[in-house]
Amino acid sequence: MKKFPKNFLWGGATAANQCEGAWNVDGKGLSVADCTRYRKNLDIADYKAQHNISSQEILEAMESQDSNKYAKRHGIDFYHRYIEDLDLFQEMGFKTLRVSIQWTRIYPTGLEEQPNESGLIFYENLFKAMNERGIEPLVTLHHYEMPLYLTNHFDGWYQREVIDLFLKFCKTVFERYQGMVKYWLTFNEIDSVFRHPFTTIGLVEDRYPSEKLEEIIYQSVHNQFVASSLATKMLKEYMPTAQMGCMITRTLTYPEDCNPQNILLALNDNRKNYFYSDVQIRGEYPKHIKNEWKRKGIHIDFGDNDEQILKDYPADFVSFSYYMSRVVSVDISNKEQVSGNISSGIKNPYLATSEWDWQIDPTGLTISLIELYDRYEKPLFIVENGLGCRDKFESDGSIQDDYRIDYFRSHIQSIANALEQGVEVMGYTPWGCIDMVSMSTCQMTKRYGFIHVDLDDDGNGSYKRTRKKSFYWYKKVIASNGEDLD
């Protein structure tokens, strides 16, 4: 097996809105995440029901003080327990930890002239504690936690004024955390704008004519592209040696068979997925996207210098999440379907499927790494990868999650296979290194972590942390720099 580089960044990934809790503490404002709730008996195949938020539901959330119904409001109380959790990550040997900064902790509505000092102090203390433990912060600036005020008063990212508001936030954190953070990401899974526009760009679909939604979403993501490039420019001014990455979901699509029509269908799906990283790495829009806009009569407002800004300030590396692959066909009649919270398609008979209908495809990770590196020839960083499962305690108090170990073993082997092909991979941060509230279903019983958190779907529990069997296995993997996967 190809050896991992000596400086390979092993670690784990979190998101502030899913782990921090403390939703109304120390001056924090409401974010879009604070409006998402756990829905019992939800059909996992009903993707729209998992993610779509109506105007009425937003009003109800704004009037509610309930932190159990709205599970991300309590998270796993990382806000108060981060020292305990960092000690556990240090025990595992983490070289890096992916975290995010909640915009609403720094600027509660996004409009304030002065930042919230309590929020700045929290992240300063967090980063100091990470550095003291030899854990490199990998910080996402915008991870599904847009200020709700901007959703209600600026149409989310649809209004261009939000670019300047975001850059004010970036300037504040870059100034404050100089020398503390080397690796940054702008927008988490920026390609998810069509999958869940409320979560990604703060867009409430029932407020707009359905025939205009596609144009509105494209305009919103264009504004994010410009903001991402300008944030990259700003980072270099404050921290010349720091690096800024883009972040996409790798939604690898296979054709059902060698029917040329199926191959073309899969090609177009993968092409759409690459669009988001193409803009941020190559610095320009692919011609096929502009042709699509022309065919559909979609008009996107570009600022006078937008195209030059995109060209001048590309991302330094490509980071991505990888959970599953999908299969498409021009003929889906009478064929079994699967549906995760990322994409749906035809069931692949060669792959196992998780309880939440996610197809497990480690080879797809090798394919993704090779294709991304061939396309961009820039360093790659796998910043999310994992398996949601229902864990159980054994009679001796242990959690024997061999299924999770098997999953990670196969995917780490897939990274090694890509390294063998000459792919440059910076690091690997499995998603939910500690159990957190699920992004889509807002459940706790859909567990990803190496560390169990005593909390149920209704918000009941002691929040006690318990090491799973996979905790000790991953510790051994890191200590051996990926050589010992037994």
From TrEMBL:
InterPro entries associated with the record: GH, GH_1_N_CS, Glyco_hydro_1, Glyco_hydro_1_AS
Active-site residue numbers: 384
An individual GO BP term: carbohydrate catabolic process
Domain of life: Bacteria
MF (Gene Ontology): beta-glucosidase activity
Record has DNA-binding as a keyword: no
UniProt keyword annotation of Hydrolase present: yes
GO cellular component: cytosol
Keywords: Glycosidase, Hydrolase
Leader peptide range in chain numbering: none
Family, similarity comment: Belongs to the glycosyl hydrolase 1 family.
Protein name per the record: 6-phospho-beta-glucosidase
Organism of provenance: Lonepinella koalarum
Record lineage: Bacteria, Pseudomonadati, Pseudomonadota, Gammaproteobacteria, Pasteurellales
